[in-house]
Protein 1
Amino acid sequence: MSFDPAITLFSCHYTSQQSCAEEGKELAQLGFPSSISLVRVPCTGKLQVTTLLKAFEDGADGVYVVGCPVDGCHNVKGSARAAKRVAAVRAALEELGVEGERIAMYHLPRGLHPEFVEKGKEMDSRIRDLGPSPFVLA
Amino acid sequence: MIVAERKPMAEIIEMVKDCKKVLVLACRGCVTVCSAGGEREAEILASLLRLGMRKEGKTVEVTIGSLVRQCDREYIDEIDQWKGQYDAVVSTACGVGVNFISNLRKDTMVYPALNTTFFGGSAKQGEWTEQCAGCGNCILHLTGGLCPVARCAKSLMNGPCGGSVDGKCEIDKNVECVWQSIHDRLGSFNRSAQMEVIAPIRDWSTAGHGGPRKTVRDDLTV
């Protein structure tokens, strides 16, 4: 099934700092998928389960969170907390009979590293394979 | 506190499948403390209800409300503020709250969002354990403050049984044998002799076996 997905990325301020330089132009030049809307948060530990669910309610076909490495979080445990909440949403999606892979957590180093783009492409590809969100009413 | 956990979403969605408007009603009492039915959990449930109904091709209007408690008449009366905004209430209170709404609101259909599990406490973040069975005949003064009714798998009054091995219960090696703990604790207070006192056959009539229980305080009634 071919479609243009809408993917919401919540990224911590530190991990995405350089990715947003020059209004994201460099990121686009590196092939970061245009299907991804980036929402920067001071710390991914600030994200609540409701924030992630609301992204799906607002029409996202997929949602992912990028935070600091588990053992190198600027706020000590922020990205570890985020991973727990992502896991909670994944479990809730599966409870509703929806693919848990529609949400993911990545722990990446700070700065504009190739992994930031790679994970974006990975998420884009995964959501294209899964197809449109079953939460979007026809 | 009363500890509870959310029911499976499929079960909750089945309850409200024919509703157009639902009031998800949080309780700011025990279930807030055990992170099962407070305002935050009500918001999560509301979101999951909307998503789940959408997946079934339906829409539901969800209003979120909360009461200080759902186990006192004066708070239940506050439901009037959402009058006309729901076909049914999905309560995230314990079973007491659901019963109270049913008792006091003759025209309100109320569904339980939680399974009420036990009276317990949290010694570790995110983890709750059963500590009390509400049996109505407390013997904690005889058992070093540790309850065999709630914490012994057999609710033995004269434990431990033969299934106690290395301080663990035979039902699960991760479950403490509370009678071993009682023995150790009494010993630490030089009261080991208490272990040799045979407890008489227990009268369970206070534990609900004599029907629903009721407490009346004449000095408080008006």
Note: The mean pLDDT of chain A is 92.
Protein 2
Amino acid sequence: MDDQKANKKRFEFSNWLFLLPCLLVLVLCAGWPLIRTVFFSFTDASLDNLNNANFVGVENFISLTRDRDWWKAVVNTFVIAGISVPLETFFGMIVALILHTNFRGRGLMRAIVLVPWTIPTIVSARMWAWMLNDSYGIINELLLKASIINTPIPWIASNFLSIVSIIIVEVWKTTPYMALLLLAGLQSMPQDCFEAAEVDGVPLRKSFTSIIFPMMKPTIIVAVIFRTLDAVRIFDLVYILSSGNNANATMSVFARRHLVDYADVGFGSAAATALLFFIAFLSVLYISFNRKKLQNVD
Amino acid sequence: MKKYLKFLAVAAAVALGTTSCLQAAVIKITCRSKGRELEVLRKAIDEWMEKQGGKHKVEIVTLPHASNECFALYQQWFGAETFDVDVLQVDVAWVGIFSDYLLPLDEYCADHLDMDDYFDIIKENMCSEDGHIIALPIYTDCGMMYYRSDLLEKYSKPVPKTLEEMYETALYIQNEERKDEEKKNKFYGLVLQAKAFEILTCNFAEILDACGGAIVKNNAAEINSERGMYAIDFMVKCLKNIMSHSVLNYSEEDARGIFQSGNAVFMRNWPYAYALMNDPSTAVAGKFDVMTIPPSAVNGKESGALGGWFMAVSKYSKHKELAADLAMFVTSKAQQKIRVAFSYLPTFKSLYKDPEVLKMNPFVANMQGPLLNAVARPSRAFGKNYTKASSEIFNTINTILTESVENTEDFNAGKHMERLNKKLSSLLHEKQQKKATDPADSASKPGFFRGIMNSIAGFFGKR
């Protein structure tokens, strides 16, 4: 008995030993900048004066809550995330269901579907900016040729349409990722339920709503939370596909503007820390959901 | 063991190699990639390397398109203090702001420079506040108006003398051209740059100047003066009637795309576009001409925003002498003469009368006037707050323009301009106060808790 305990202890110790390099890298790459940013948010540091920053307490956070542009950025971020994530889930589910069926060239198809996800966001954002240009962009040209519209649409210049364009491109880009996560969920589902349903002659629609969807629910929720965490940090698309004024900035665009453009490291860090707070809140939601799920299984 | 020895030998060889490299230096220089800048600089650098007997290497670091992004990048570099770029291309508006980080060049170049030959407005911007030369101009820029001479002729319209006349001409030609089915949806009277970036500050500053207003006068903000309101109303009128709404997301190259494909009568842009558009492959080659930004009929004056770039040497450079020599070489009169062919305007007055230069690019002769009339952005007035001020300006103007076409019901430009003026005033005030209080004084004794927190802050600030 004692022997077993000692073995277990040794095993645990070696676990930690193996984890150590990875943890060290994490602490150095993610932990240190994170702590630094949080700390700077309580100071009046500026880009050219980081060494002699003065501690100012929560002053930055107070002025952040009073900043109209910041709340506008918060609203914009959640509007973009709130619309694009459900759309991605919907389209991702369709793609996943298609890729789940057996057809020739399925492997190739699975690889091709991933292309939008693998292009660096900044590249695809530029690409879309050209396609959406009102004078020489292909999208307006096609719509005009097809007589759907009479005058070119300023896709990336108007405040409202920029948000629409950002959502469109965001959905285009991340649907494959969603499809990938959901496909993994589909494939790990036991096949016998389907077979039983088939034998009993359950119609396809019914088998989706009563078998696939309930069994997929945990996967869907995990995928949605992952994507939401990611969507809240949206930066590159907004940077390229909007005219750059405060009316359509998101939280990370706002934080960057103050941190870098205005060299106001203290206030910018406060904005970044507030963004971190939002993400932490969503993560807590995710973890508590996970715990509940585990309890249900028990 | 043998393997170990071998490794040692290799290491020793590498170490020896690096020490012998000390004589042959690698100089890093930054350069923008707008138009043909990179191509031209590369040629100049090849020439310099040859002159040095091929001993030293030069590496080019390309900069982002938008100048406020370059600015942010530099700020990060200077903040880090340990970066290995030697020669930096800096905007005319930043020389004063970055003066603490730039190497005084007097000892390297005082004997070689013909100071009297520089334009006054450029000379003012070469020096730090205490009078040291810290940056050498490589080319100068001035906002100007391009116009389609063939279209003016076709509709027998004269070259407009005032902003208001330009508007009428643009509107007339736009409506006439749009009768053609092909051009119905994509022909515009005017195209400029109204993306919420530094370029919009330039665009607005020159229209304001042309209308007889100013952003800062006698150290006080007066952007919402009667002339300021006139300028913004003029821009709104243009956006509503003779511009594509997409200009709200246009920078220089987007605007050039429209004009170059023959879809606009007037375009506000920098001189660099001239040579590119005169390339025989474009739709407008030989069909356009340039003028200064015309004055408003009321109280106006000819204008154009002063742009232009300088080469400066970083204080942290490890090869100061070589870097200064390279900066001097690429900004020399001979090199500026070569650049004329690519329509980068020289900074020496004498080159505007040089017959060779005029033969290469006749339009240079017309540019001396605009340069004498050019309006500088208020960067010296705002000092380190300039980026904030400029950002307030371009954000507000972009917002006003956007709202003027989107929520037309409760559109109120005056409210925005008043708010902008207040912000600019407080930024100016802040700068003056900063100057008044000595930095050593301001660090008054912190309490015990604050003292500890400050020292922790110092710890986090170190790299």
Note: Chain B touches chain A through 48 residues (CB under 8 Å).
Protein 3
Amino acid sequence: MPDGMNVDYDGLIPNNVDLNADARVRKALETWHPGYIDWWKDMGPEGFQEALVYLRTAVSVDPKGWARFDYVRMPDYKWGILLAPKVEGRLIGFGQHRGEPAWQEVPGEYRGMLRRLLTIQGDTEPASVEQQRFLGKTAPSLYDMRNLFQVNVEEGRHLWAMVYLLQKHFGKDGREEAEDLLRRRSGNEDSPRMLGAFNEETPDWVSFFMFTFFTDRDGKMQLEALAQSGFDPLSRTCRFMLTEEAHHMFVGETGVQRVIERTCAAMRAAGIEDPSDVERVRALGVVDLPTLQKKMNLHFSLTLDLFGNEVSTNAANAYNSGLKGRYREDKLDDDHRLLDSAYPVLRCVDGVIAEEAVPALSALNMRLRDDYVVDCQGGVNRWNKAIEKAGVAFRLTLPHVAFNRKIGEFSRIHADPEGRVLPPEQWAANRDRWLPSTEDNLYIVSLMTPVDNAGGYAPWIASPKVGIDNKPGDFEYVKLWD
Amino acid sequence: MDGGTTGAPAGAVVKQHLIDPEICIRCNTCEATCPIGAVTHDENNYVVDVGTCNFCMDCVAPCPTGAIDNWFQVAAPFSLEDQLSWQELPPRPALPAASGEGEAVDALDEEAAALIAEAHKGAGGRVRAPVSASKPRVNLFNRASPAIAKVTGNIRVTKSGTSSDVHHVILDFGAVAFPVLEGQSIGIVPPGTGADGRPHAMRLYSVCSARDGERPNTNNLALTVKRVAEPRADGGVFRGVASNYLCDLALGDTVRVVGPFGATFLMPDDPDADVVMICTGTGAAPFRAFTERRRRTGGTGRGRLHLFFGARTPEELPYFGPLQKLPAALLDQELVFSRLPDRPKEHVQDRMRRRPADLAALLARGSTHVYVCGLRGLEEGVEAAFSEIGAAHGLDWPATRAAMREQGRYHVETY
């Protein structure tokens, strides 16, 4: 196996970056490690630290080695530093340095910008673990519980990935940022996480599936853009993180899909034709489709805020300096500098939503958001296929990008899911038609009774089509008792 | 359909790698992982080009959904256009019976596939995996890039001094994932070259340990290997290259392992299934694995294991000692010896004839699975015994066997 493929598991910190040869960084990480474990025990999955969980651990970044499954107690999970193999002769693919060799060290002039990119990305990782820490107690099956914990430990590993870059390349500043990543807490008034959506609660499993589908997908888009970076260690880190992120997408997409399948099957069995007959559908103990639509509206709109302002100088600078590219930049066919091109952006002018061509460089957040919407739409189409297959007359739709926004062009207006601008009183009168009401949320929470016998599933969710690691249906994914 | 993407001759059965569109989440991991660009996509589906895919399996482990792990035997491969238009996988195409191929893919490697097809011939027709069997992984490693295992055990399991020199060889895979199911085989290619200067042929060995290792949760597997040393007509001795290589391995040696192989000779996971295991000599290997798996998963169901195991003497019966310790509730065993002093020769089929009522009752039950494993010729004796028992109990054996085979409940592996 080529060098840098195998992971050294002998030391305290598994890695494929030859940490043993870098005493300074190794010491910094070993100093950070106890704080991380404390954070995990305080803020990680509540009540399941002793359970044996059938988890995937990367033992090599070679495709055959990075999916080794075994029973692990979560605090013993091998969080490590794994970078995709180095591509010799890699060149910077965009911006003013396009064509120059990729940087192995941080260029002095971009230090501040890069540090901020790493810190923001890093902050989201522990935040989601904190948001999801109580979900284990209401897991609809051992299969789902295992998937939750897999997502959690991998978010923990992604924190490690960012902390490694901070410690390795940013000296004292990096060390302080790394400490702060363990200090901030999701939803805490005094030291909240940096981005809004990561301070919202994940109170139930429908929210969790929506979060992994919509919000983790923002993570995927950001990682895709950073994987293009001219700063090679960041690119390699993000490329490996993306292979793990795919599992999170899977949990979200199939989670919602299984909710849909169960609801449709229950409606058919009960002879309910009208999906909007919420009362009768709820009497079956399943999640009605209109409520799922409202949950979608909420999580989609909250996540759009994560893309920042539609027109942004920061994004232009990050691109121009070769730090953060576009989604799959290497697959795009243009000049990769964007100095003379324009990009259509939806703006809000005098309370009216209108398209406007702006310089492509300043529209990069918008562009990434557009790619994100396309990616979401693919999943929604597959959900609709499941509804159609079950013979239920209902379609889920993504709301308009102006709907329910707190950041960017549309934060100053109210718009309905079709993108029609509304006066405040009309928004207020209809809010509960478009977003989950307290009653909706209470109903979903009322369904959250745990099922922890191997092979059993809560009555509001269908079983998956295939098991994790090809395991049979009654496999005990989490051993709750010895 | 567009046949232009395949290099296969028309009419020949080929194995095709397909992605299940109903399970795939279009995450792009496979396309990003594929080293030769065999995976591509449009806005609907991710698809594999049958003319490009070389079965390196790099995409299989990273796939988060399991959608990637589908292998069809097809006479006419599906084109990229076909696959891009799918909403779900099509039904597996019916194959001409003469092709002798089953639906499940035992191996992607032609050499290993031919060995398995030959070993399964005795089943008398197309075989299927038991309905409740776990899904096997096949061919994760090939000759060009084998898994490297370390020898952590090599002990003789027949009595010293007898001419049957059978070894129990334990291979540890360290950090490398090498998932096997009970009943699967691995390929061993002895190092070096033969007299003709070409690399040695591959030999397949049945895994004799359970899927989670020799002990639970170890990343190793065990083989039962008989040293082949037979007198030749010219007075010399023929020594099997692979078996002697394996039997002579020292602890710490490394071995190049190919596979895993086999997709039909698998045990039912259903705890209510009865399993009849008929073997001679090292044919016991898969049944040791079956038994250990049942023992570990606990006797939660109604099913029992029934073993008919033949050897010349107790001293030459592999694992004779450990077999004595297994409780009858787990394993109903009939150990049969053909060379006991002062006793007439007895073969497994003879012993089967002494349990006609039990076997007839088992054959009549829809949850019974029969496995025959050992030297070529064993299946004929077993056939004769089942025919007689069937005739005496009003059961048409050929029809029963065909139905059982069709339902994945009749399996033969002889060599």
Note: The radius of gyration of chain A is 23 Å.
Protein 4
Amino acid sequence: MIKIIRIALISMCCALLMMPFQVFAHTHHQESPIPKAKPNVQTGEKNTLQKLIDATEPGGTLLLEGRTYRGTVIISKPITIKGSKDTKIASLDSAITISNTNNVVIEDLMIQAENIAIIGEKVDSLQLKNIQVEQRKAGIQLTNSSGITLKNVDITGEEGHFSTKGHAIAIYKSKGVQAADCDIWRVMDGFYLEQVDNITLKTNSIKEGRYAVHLMYSDNVEVTTNKLESNMTGLMIMVANNVSIYENQITKNNTLNSLGVYLYDDEDVDFHENLLSENTVAMSIENTQKMEVSNNEFSTNGTAIQAKKSETLQLVDNQFFGNILTMRTDQKGVQLHHNFYDDYAGKDYDGDGIGDTKYIATNSFGQWMVRKPVYQYFIETPSVVILNLMDTEVTDGDTAIQIDESPIVMKKNTSRDISINVWQLGCSLVVLIAILFARRKLR
Amino acid sequence: MSTQMILLEYKQLLRSRWIQIVTILFAIVFTAILMIQHLAMPDTTGFTRQTASLLNILLFLLPLFMLTIGSMNIASDKESGWLGLLRTYPLNMGNYVLTKYIAFCLVFSGIFLFVVTIAFLVGSFFGGIKLPLFAIGITAIIILIFNALSIFVGSIAKSRLHALALGLGVWSVVTLVWNYIVMAIGTITAEHVLQKIVILSIHMNPLEWIRYGYFVFSKQTAVLGPALYGVSKFYTSYVGFLFFLFISLMWIAFSLLGAKIILTIRGKRG
């Protein structure tokens, strides 16, 4: 009997001794119980998360509590880290560094780091989902990686000029990047992608930065259904092949030297069904070959299209309205076909929907602006408006002008509100009666 | 200067057929531009071609009306002997000039109010229109500066026909010829020289001054390009704003003072 009691006591003591180590033993796969960081860990908060990561088996899932974890963590094995509500990682340096590994999934986290929030190098298959970053220096920086998925990553920079900030998402020398539903605000560049192959940017919203999307030396690019608003430049793509840009809204990029879209030295570009509105220059295309711009809406921009050394550029079935200048090009020009221009004054007597006379898209003043930007001061002055009218009448034989031989005469979508504004009607009637009464009295 | 005299001038101007025709013409054009903007353009806050049209209507038509009506009115006073009669009274020419100026400003403010009301009335049948705030500000500055200029032009003129010719001449120079000259100079000069000439021309031409003021105060100097970045930065500052007011006041003060001096000298010559 005494022997049995002794064995029981020894077992209990062993069990009690083992309890503190259970925190390290909770490295589990998906089906394992949820590991919890124990409150009685004596090593301090700073290392808690790193220890939890270290304790998680490769390929396992680490579920974090809804609290703040402090310090920098390094991930160098396949792992899924999943936060819960209010899970936050705060660091005085970088928050998460991922290197030389694969299959890393991080989701449902808020990150606050004084340096770069997430750094990744040589990572194969990285998924970042539902991440919120309060950016100080930079958001996410990935190098030499592949299979990168960014889903619902929200990055917010501090107030101040973009020149003092870093990029929200910077990816270098990588393959296979997919970013969707990301919300980026007040940073330098929303997406900075350099030497990246196979990129898809979809349904992202980027505001108040330098370049919303800055992409160079990259191939196989798809940019779709994004909202790029109030940036210095919406979309900047340089030295890229096989680019598809469609259904984006690129608006209000209207500061000094702003561009909605800037394409330089690109090849094989398809740009269709985008809305470009209220930009200083909606599209600037330079040295770009095999590009088609079709079914886009260019409305109320300073200049709709500015093209240099892009003679193969084709503009088809686009709508231009409310732009101050439709086009300015160099001598090489572009090819215009079947677009709608709200300032087209021709008629359609045969009723085929195509104007009977050609539309001249460029004018001398626009060309002067290309040569000497100071001339921009005179834009739409009464003198220039008259000059343009005269210009259109006398430039028929000029080979440098851009002509659309088959302009569309009706805009595809027109919406008109013809309801009566009772308040405005009443007020204006009262004021009108008052004016007429006063005038009668003063006669 | 008395309120009675201002009221008398005001009443006489209101009876003018020319003013009535001008008001109707202005109302039609202004309403048409606003309606086109409302029906054909998306609701935007930036500088569009339609905004430019609205700005140009104000910059093109209002100075024309003011320079011709104002200068001819002063010349008419001289031609009809009314000014000579007034000189037999103990009336200071400064008071005469100021009375005319206030009356002109009131009449053109009334015209603008009427035109805006008509535009709103028509627009109310199409869901209601919005009048950009700049239109009110820019009109106020045009009224203040160009009415002063018109009195100056009228004081120089010897007859109504002379006043009309002078008024149209000044109008064509400030609206069209001036810019063509600057643009032509730009074709033979370096870009940095042209930039300096443009900045100088903004300060020397009242119409360009008002137009530039619109871009500065509506925070849309980006439309004018990078060449004017430095000067625009200055005018968007507090000191720049005060300087803008000072220059604007100088245009008014020098015009009215010039008119007073000319009328006084010519009065003494008999």
Note: The mean pLDDT of chain A is 85.
